[in-house]
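Priority: medium. Attachment 1 of 2:
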C-alpha cells in the first residue's frame, strides 16, 4: 500500500512540474475575476495542493454531469459514472447528438457560459446537453487546478465511455466544448477516448503554465479539433499559439472590439461561439503565418468559425474580424 501511495504522489508532483515558456518567466501573477466579479490573483509559483490532486486523480466521481434536454431545458438531471440507473431513468436520448460543455477556472454549473450555451444548443436542435461541473478543483488555486486538469479530463472520457456502453450513444455524435482550463479538460477527455469524438472546440484555451505543457489541447484529441483564440497576448489569459486542426484568431487573437480588460477578451471566445451556433455568421480567411494574422492580410480560403457542425473539417490558421456587439 505504501508503494502505491508513493507512486501516486510522485505522479502528482510530476504533473505539477510545468515548464514555463520564455514569455512566462517574468510573469509570476495572473489577474482574474471570478463569476461574482471578485478579483482572484493567481501566483504561478505557488505550491500545488498535493492532497487534493491525489483525491482528484483517484476519484473521477468528483466531476458532476448535469443533463439538459428539450424535455428538461432548465432543470438538470444528474448522470453518474458507474450508475446505469441514473442514465436509463433520465431523458438522455442516444439517437440525438450530445454536446458537453466544460467551464473554466473559478466557475461552477451556474456560470454564464453553461446557461448561455445550453439554451443556444437546445434552441437550435434536439440534442443532449451535458454540463460538466468540476468545481472542487476549479475553485482551488490556479497551479493546483492546472495540475489536476489531466485527471479531470480522463474522468470525463471515462464517463463518456460508460455512457456509450449503457446507451450505445456513438462517439461520432459527440461535441465537447471547453472554455479556458476547460479547453484542456476536453482535450484530455478526447485523448482518453483515443481521439474518437467527432468534434472538440477549445474556447480561448488557458495560456499561463500551458505553453510548453504536454497535457494541453492538441489536434489529435478528436476527429476534428478547433480552437478560438481571443486573449493570446503576452499578458493574456489565453494561449496565443496554434494547438488544433484549425485555429481561429478573431481580430488578431489578442484584443476584442468593445473590450477594455483581459477577462473581457477571454470571455469573448465563448460569446462568439455562442453566436455562431445560432447564426453561423463568422467567416475566417486562412493565413500563411501569424504575421498575416496580426496585420490582417490573410487572403486564403474561407472557413466558418465555430457552429455545431459535427462533420466540419479543415486545417490551418484563420483570422476572422468581428463587431463589438452580438451577433458580432
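Attachment 2 of 2:
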Amino acid at each position: 500500500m505504501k508503494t502505491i501511495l508513493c507512486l501516486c504522489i510522485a505522479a502528482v508532483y510530476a504533473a505539477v512540474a510545468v515548464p514555463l515558456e520564455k514569455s512566462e518567466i517574468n510573469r509570476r501573477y495572473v489577474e482574474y475575476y471570478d463569476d461574482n466579479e471578485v478579483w482572484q490573483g493567481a501566483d504561478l509559483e505557488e505550491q500545488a495542493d498535493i492532497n487534493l490532486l491525489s483525491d482528484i486523480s483517484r476519484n473521477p466521481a468528483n466531476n458532476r454531469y448535469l443533463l439538459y434536454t428539450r424535455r428538461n431545458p432548465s432543470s438538470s438531471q444528474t448522470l453518474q459514472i458507474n450508475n446505469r440507473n441514473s442514465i436509463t431513468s433520465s431523458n438522455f436520448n442516444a439517437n440525438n447528438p450530445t454536446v458537453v460543455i466544460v467551464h473554466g477556472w473559478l466557475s461552477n454549473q451556474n456560470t454564464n457560459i453553461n446557461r448561455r450555451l445550453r439554451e443556444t444548443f437546445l434552441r437550435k436542435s434536439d440534442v443532449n446537453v451535458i454540463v460538466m461541473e468540476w468545481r472542487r478543483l476549479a475553485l482551488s488555486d490556479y497551479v493546483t487546478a492546472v495540475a489536476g486538469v489531466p485527471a479531470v479530463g480522463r474522468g470525463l472520457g471515462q464517463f463518456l465511455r460508460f455512457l456509450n456502453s449503457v446507451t450505445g450513444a456513438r462517439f461520432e455524435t459527440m461535441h465537447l466544448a471547453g472554455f479556458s482550463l476547460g479547453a484542456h479538460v476536453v482535450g484530455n477527455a478526447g485523448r482518453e477516448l483515443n481521439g474518437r469524438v467527432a468534434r472538440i472546440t477549445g474556447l480561448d484555451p488557458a495560456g499561463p503554465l500551458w505553453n510548453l505543457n504536454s497535457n494541453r489541447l492538441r489536434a489529435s484529441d478528436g476527429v476534428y479539433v478547433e480552437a478560438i483564440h481571443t486573449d493570446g497576448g503576452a499578458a493574456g489569459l489565453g494561449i496565443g499559439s496554434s494547438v488544433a486542426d484549425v485555429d481561429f484568431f478573431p481580430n488578431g487573437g489578442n484584443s476584442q472590439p468593445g473590450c477594455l480588460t483581459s477577462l473581457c477578451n477571454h470571455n469573448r471566445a465563448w460569446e462568439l461561439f455562442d453566436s455562431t451556433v445560432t447564426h453561423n455568421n463568422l467567416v475566417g480567411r486562412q493565413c500563411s503565418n501569424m504575421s498575416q494574422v496580426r496585420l490582417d492580410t490573410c487572403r486564403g480560403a474561407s472557413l466558418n468559425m465555430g457552429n455545431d457542425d459535427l462533420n466540419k473539417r479543415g486545417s490551418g490558421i484563420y483570422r476572422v474580424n468581428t463587431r463589438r456587439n452580438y451577433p458580432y
